[in-house]
Automatic annotation (TrEMBL):
EC number: 2.7.13.3
Segment forming the signal sequence: none
Organism field: Sphingomonas colocasiae
Keywords for this protein: ATP-binding, Kinase, Membrane, Nucleotide-binding, Transferase, Transmembrane, Transmembrane helix, Two-component regulatory system
Protein name, entry field: histidine kinase
Annotated PANTHER family: C4-DICARBOXYLATE TRANSPORT SENSOR PROTEIN DCTB, SENSOR HISTIDINE KINASE
């Protein structure tokens, strides 16, 4: 039996009782000499009316309490009244069921909200929101890591990352994208910027998505270079292998035939032996450059910067070529830990120190080289190698990282290209700038 039927029966009984009491009271009024009966009938009629009113009002109160609980978010309220009778126990259970459904729905929505919040926070694309009042806020981890050099929520506060970014945040139309260069703590980085428009709590919010692509471009460039070198070295070795073999055989044969009596044979022997040596030299040259096509294997671990730098200093001083070069080492903070492959990074840094020493000794009587290792606000590590040499011309600052490119007479063009590969394998960067001492400053970010 449902609430409506039980309620109707209870209402009918109370209504009948009230009508009966009223009829009794009316009869007592019409019959003389029943004063006491009139008082009893009036009392019964009043009691029946109050009971009827309380019965109807009870339902209204329960429904009103339910509505208030929903309005004020009190989803822990209880309405069940066991043994209440007249269907109110069923009504309480129904209202409790409604509260329970609302509570479960709220929990589901809260769980979905947490999921989407975590999804937005962990998405690898930096997201910046701009509300109707012009407040620009970083809304996920990628944005906070990328834009870590400013404070405040004004669009102008993003000026430290480049004027083009400020213009994109302020005015890039929804649905459009733009390629720009960001000025970040790891150096200049190309990035794509996209804009979208969303509705939020009656306001329109612009969402700016910033995706750095410099690492991907560098990786593609290095991969293309490696593929080209692999093809070239393969073809050169295929062509040079029989030439080298024939040159050695010819050199042996003419050496056996040369008795020192015929000048023409002696000249031919000299020419063939020169050819044989040069063929071997070309094969060695090609074999050396094949190492560029093998990406370095990175074994990252945490290690202390201070002993690492001290060991590099000892290696630098042990080379007698740069006994007159002053090496300055600075570590900030002294207990900083580096997250990298120590062997690969040591190979890169010692090569940069040697290049810096060469440049410094060619430009004055007081050659100086500096090695700086410092922690960055983003949690990365910056390593800088500077000198007081002549520096790298701005027009060549990108070319020096290309394979085979060198400005030194005895250079191979491998060192800086290898350094770039090592830094890319660490998800880092390497760039060259001008040092405060006037020479070159190589900046590595890990």
């Amino acid at each position: 039996m449902g609430f409506d039927r039980r309620f109707a029966i209870g209402l009918a009984l109370r209504l009948a009782l009230a009508l009966a009491a009223l009829a009794l009271f009316a009869w007592s009024l019409l019959t003389p000499g029943l004063a006491a009966a009139r008082i009893v009938a009036a009392t019964l009629a009043m009691g029946a009316g109050i009971a009827l009113w309380r019965y109807v009002r009870r339902t209204n109160l329960e429904v009103a309490r339910f509505i208030d609980a929903v309005r004020f978010g009190d989803l822990q309220a209880r309405f069940a009244r066991p043994k209440a009778g007249s269907g109110f126990d069923i009504l309480g259970e129904a209202l409790d069921g409604g509260i329970r459904t609302l509570r479960e729905e709220r929990e589901r929505i809260a769980e979905e909200t947490r999921f989407f919040s975590a999804l937005v926070d962990d998405v690898p694309v930096a997201l910046v929101t701009v509300d109707g009042e012009g407040r620009a806020e970083c809304v996920n981890k990628a944005a906070r890591r990328l834009f870590n050099r400013h404070s405040g929520v004004r669009i102008a506060d993003f000026e430290v990352y480049g004027a083009s970014l400020v213009q994109a945040i302020a005015g890039l139309p929804p649905g459009r994208h733009q390629l720009l260069i960001l000025s970040l703590d790891i150096g200049s980085q190309r990035a794509t910027v996209r804009a979208a428009s969303l509705a939020r709590l009656g306001d329109t919010v612009r969402v700016i998505a910033v995706q750095p692509i410099q690492d991907a471009l560098n990786a593609v460039e290095v991969a293309a270079q490696s593929d080209l070198i692999r093809v070239l070295t393969h073809e050169i070795m295929n062509s040079m292998t029989p030439v080298t073999s024939l040159a050695r055989t010819a050199a042996q044969l003419i050496a056996e035939a040369d008795r020192g009596q015929d000048p023409a044979i002696a000249d031919a022997r000299s020419a063939i032996e020169t050819l044989s040596r040069r063929a071997d030299g070309v094969m060695h040259f090609v074999e050396t450059y094949r190492t560029i096509t093998r990406p370095p294997q990175v074994n990252r671990r945490l290690f202390a910067a201070e002993p690492f730098a001290a060991e590099l200093g000892r290696l630098f001083e042990a080379d007698g070529h740069w006994a007159d070069v002053l090496l300055r080492i600075l570590i900030n903070p002294p207990d900083h830990l580096i997250d990298a492959d120590p062997d690969l990074i040591a190979q890169v840094v010692i090569n940069l120190l040697r290049n810096a020493a060469d440049a410094a000794t060619m430009n004055g009587d007081t050659p100086e080289v500096s090695l700086t290792i410092e922690a960055m606000r983003s949690g990365r590590t910056r390593i800088e190698v500077g000198d007081n040499g002549t520096g790298v011309p701005e027009a060549l600052r990108h070319d020096i990282f290309l394979p085979f490119f060198t400005t030194k007479k005895t250079g191979s063009g491998i060192g800086l290209s290898f350094a770039r590969q090592v830094l890319l394998a660490h998800d880092g960067s390497i760039e060259v700038d001008r040092s405060p001492a006037g020479g070159a400053l190589f900046r590595l970010v890990l």
